[in-house]
């Protein structure tokens, strides 16, 4: 954190659990480096407590906050205004408090798109195959469509998220220039065909996340092709089994670490109007080998 005095502005994280989060480290260090008189704290909030805790932060004049699961959807309902991406996604992970009016944003998708750039790839005007239909997948899907990815083939299982994925697909086809198509993940032939036409494959499910490192959403290495970039939103472990299999098949890969960094950088910019010193934060907290 930077200097603290009577003028210090409050920001923080709401969610359950939150104590393990890297966000306080990253934001307080960034406030210090940029000499911003802000502080970032963690506030444990279960979904049913969110409204009360948001009201308390408003009363205290907090500048803004992040929300993590399970609060992102309820937070969306509590905002007075929404960014186009937050409105489409139906979830808010960053709030800016402008004199008691709450502006809701979703920076997860921005974070992902920045991480693609950071890894050295260009996917605007190209085709993406995206797996998953939860919060991370929807944020990536919406931002990709808004940013100008030409086509997204979305694969998910015929489970609880299917209907929502279907609604999102229809809405994005109507409201953006991106051509979005939804497929059943069980159809491996179609998955292979769509991947063969894609510049990037993204896993946005939690399959392969610790402690289930031995799992991969794709097990068959013939699904990959040499021109394909393979990315995972997971950052624990740093190299998922999916990434390992893709690497063995000759594909460049990257994980979700910089998605996490850049969703925070975007929130920092929204609160302070200043860019986060990402090179410094990266070096201090986001080293690949940890
Ligand atoms: P979520 O809302 O619970 O969504 C999980 C998705 O994975 C759902 O679509 C679920 O399908 C699907 N899924 C789970 N197991 C599956 C399986 N065996 N086969 C096929 N699909 C399966 O979770 P989330 O918030 O999107 O998070 C997903 C992952 O992204 C987590 O690992 C999280 O840590 C990571 N994440 C990373 C960042 C970052 O900054 N890097 C940000 C957000 C999230 P059903 O709906 O059918 O259950």
Automatic annotation (TrEMBL):
Keywords: Amino-acid biosynthesis, Aromatic amino acid biosynthesis, NADP, Oxidoreductase. NADP(+) binds at residues 132-136, 233, 256. It holds the Pfam family SDH_C. Pathway: Metabolic intermediate biosynthesis; chorismate biosynthesis; chorismate from D-erythrose 4-phosphate and phosphoenolpyruvate: step 4/7; Aromatic compound metabolism; 3,4-dihydroxybenzoate biosynthesis; 3-dehydroquinate from D-quinate (NAD(+) route). The active site is at 72 (proton acceptor). One of its GO terms (molecular function) is shikimate 3-dehydrogenase (NADP+) activity. The keyword Hydrolase does not apply. InterPro entries: Aminoacid_DH-like_N_sf (IPR046346), NAD(P)-bd_dom_sf (IPR036291), SDH_C (IPR041121), Shikimate_DH (IPR011342), Shikimate_DH-bd_N (IPR013708), Shikimate_DH_fam (IPR022893). GO terms for biological process: amino acid biosynthetic process; aromatic amino acid family biosynthetic process; chorismate biosynthetic process; shikimate metabolic process. PANTHER family: BIFUNCTIONAL 3-DEHYDROQUINATE DEHYDRATASE_SHIKIMATE DEHYDROGENASE, CHLOROPLASTIC, SHIKIMATE DEHYDROGENASE. This is Shikimate dehydrogenase (NADP(+)). It comes from Candidatus Fimimorpha faecalis.
């Amino acid at each position: 954190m930077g200097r603290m005095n009577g003028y210090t502005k409050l920001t923080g994280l709401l969610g359950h659990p939150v104590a393990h989060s890297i966000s306080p480290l990253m934001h307080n260090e960034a406030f210090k480096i940029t000499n911003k008189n802000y502080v970032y704290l963690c506030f444990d909030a279960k979904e049913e407590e969110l409204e009360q805790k948001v009201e308390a932060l408003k009363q205290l004049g907090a500048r803004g906050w992040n929300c993590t699961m399970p609060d992102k959807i309820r937070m969306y309902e509590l905002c007075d205004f929404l960014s186009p991406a937050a409105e489409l996604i139906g979830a808010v992970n960053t709030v800016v408090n402008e004199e008691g009016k709450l502006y809701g944003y979703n920076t997860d998708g921005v974070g992902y798109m920045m991480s693609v750039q950071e890894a050295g790839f260009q996917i605007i005007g190209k085709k993406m195959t995206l797996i998953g239909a939860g919060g991370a997948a929807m944020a990536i899907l919406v931002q990709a469509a808004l940013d100008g990815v030409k086509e997204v083939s979305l694969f998910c299982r015929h489970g609880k998220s299917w209907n929502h994925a279907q609604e999102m697909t229809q809405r994005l086809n109507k409201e953006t220039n991106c051509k979005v198509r939804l497929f059943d993940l069980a159809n491996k032939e179609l998955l292979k065909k769509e991947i063969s036409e894609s510049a990037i494959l993204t896993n946005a499910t939690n399959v392969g996340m610790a402690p289930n490192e031995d799992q991969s959403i794709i097990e068959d290495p013939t699904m990959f092709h040499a021109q394909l970039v393979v990315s995972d939103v997971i950052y624990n472990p740093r190299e998922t089994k999916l990434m390992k299999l893709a690497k063995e098949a000759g594909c460049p890969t990257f994980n979700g670490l910089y998605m996490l960094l850049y969703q925070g950088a975007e929130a920092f910019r929204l609160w302070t109007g200043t860019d986060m010193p990402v090179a410094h934060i990266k070096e201090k907290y986001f080293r690949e080998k940890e």
